[in-house]
Amino acid sequence: MLLQSSLEKDLELVLLDSTQRSVPPPGVTRRALDASRRIVEFIVKLFLHRPDTVLIFCGSGPSLAEKSLMSFMARMLRRPVLLFPRGGGILRRYRERAALSFWVRVALKIPTKVLCQGESWQRLMVHGVGRLQGDAPIVRNWSATPKHLSIAYNSSETGPVRLLFVGWLKREKGVFDLVNALATREADYPVVTRLVGDGDARRELTKLIEKLGLGGEVVLAGWKSAEELLDEYAWADVFVLPSWVEGLPNSMIEAMASGLPVVVTPVGNVPDVIQNGENGLIAEARNPRALAAAIDSLVDNPQQRARLSCAARQTARSLFGLEAAARALIDLVNQVSRPSTR
Questions:
Q1: Using one digit for the tens of pLDDT, what is the confidence trace for 154-167?
Q2: DSSP states of 148-194 as a string?
Q3: Claim to verify: residue 223 and residue 285 sit in the same structural domain
Q4: Among 28, 129, 135, 234, which is 20 to 30 Å from 197 by CA?
Q5: How confident is the model at residue 311 (pLDDT cuts 50, 70, 90)?
Q6: What angle do CA 329, 331, 336 make, to 5 degrees?
Q7: Which CATH number belongs to the domain containing residue 294 in this structure?
Q8: Are both 32 and 16 inside the same structural domain?
Q9: Number of helices followed by number of strands (H, E) in the chain
Q10: Is pLDDT of 21 > 70?
């Protein structure tokens, strides 16, 4: 997506694709081979192109280990490195496991700067890792594309209210909490729910849906392409993401940009964006009853849905546009770059 912005026009880019090759992810052996291939390719590109700056995106776990090694190699060649961690796994592991938090601190001290998705990440960098605030700048997510922003919000006035979840079907995403919340709702007004995504909890989730008698109300829709997701956002009245762990979820930003009122949990950088009752609703994580109450407050109140729809879209437009993020990255690259010795 960044290649469609001024980033590609203003900077000479040398690309190395490290995106996951399939959904669900391949096995451990395949992933290890892919990581080894990428590291070799990275070394070749470092020596061949002598970049002025290295920009690296990473996730948690093996991704952080791989990208930290790349960061170290680039720093050994005296190249500035901008590392951009994504997702909430690093935040969770840092807080929950002392041994892992040591290695996370080591890894996150290697780059020249660590780019943060929000204030929660920045606080971790400053107070946990010990970086200067200037070396942990905030660069907002850029998921609010023109296509999302152009979707008209047409909330259902007759028939069931349409709920949408987008993400991995696994316990940490709160999908079981969502299904249990649907079973414990107190409002009489009907809802239908689409769970877009897949994962290792699909079979267990299917059994729970059948056990609770929700087979006619909950649809497991599987993964969708980017274009198909636009149709899902256009279909929905309310977006629900009751995760236990997050960084700053793309799907939440996409939903807000599409004009959907959102029901989310206060994890990761989410509370830095969502003010409860102002531009979305926040329900306690791992609490199906609290989630059900938040959902019902929107189901029973179309005026509330319309108000939060407008506020959500405005938040997404002002904070998470593609060009704003591209300009921030360009400024950071220019800030840390120096002429290379070629």
A1: 887 778 999 999 99
A2: HHT------SSSPEEEEEES--SGGGTHHHHHHHHHH----S-EEEE
A3: yes
A4: 28
A5: very high
A6: 95
A7: 3.40.50.2000
A8: yes
A9: 15, 9
A10: no
Mean pLDDT of 308-314: 98
Backbone angles phi, psi at 145, to 5 degrees: -85, 160
Same domain, 304 and 230: yes
pTM: 0.84
Per residue in 271-309, pLDDT tens?
Answer: 999 999 999 999 999 999 999 999 999 999 999 999 999
What SS3 class is residue 224?
coil
Q: Rounded to an integer, what distance in angstroms lies between the CA atom of residue 96 and that of residue 81?
A: 27
Q: How many residues does the chain have?
A: 342
Report residue 259 as tokens: 């004009």
Are both 287 and 332 inside the same structural domain? no
Q: How far is it, in rounded angstroms, from Cα 87 to Cα 173?
A: 12
Burial of 177 (0-12, 13-18, 19+ CB in 10 A): buried
Is the same domain home to 6 and 107?
Answer: yes
Residue 342 falls within a domain, yes or no?
no
* Neighbouring C-beta atoms of residue 3, cutoff 10 Å: 10
pLDDT in tens, 35-89: 999 999 999 999 999 999 999 999 888 888 999 999 999 999 999 999 999 866 6
Q: How far apart are alpha carbons 178 and 289 in whole angstroms? A: 9
- The answer to whether residue 341 sits within a structural domain is no
Whole-angstrom Cα distance, residue 284 to residue 14?
43
Helix axes 250-257, 302-319, angle to 10 degrees: 110
Q: Are residues 282 and 332 located together in one domain of the fold?
A: no
Residues 203 and 113 in one domain: no
For 199, the domain range is 146-319
* Listed residue (309, 298, 313, 192) closest to 261, CA to CA: 309
Give the pLDDT confidence score for residue 43 in this predicted structure: 97
For the chain, give percent helix, strand, coil, nearest 5. Answer: 50, 15, 35
What is the structure's pLDDT at 28?
Answer: 83
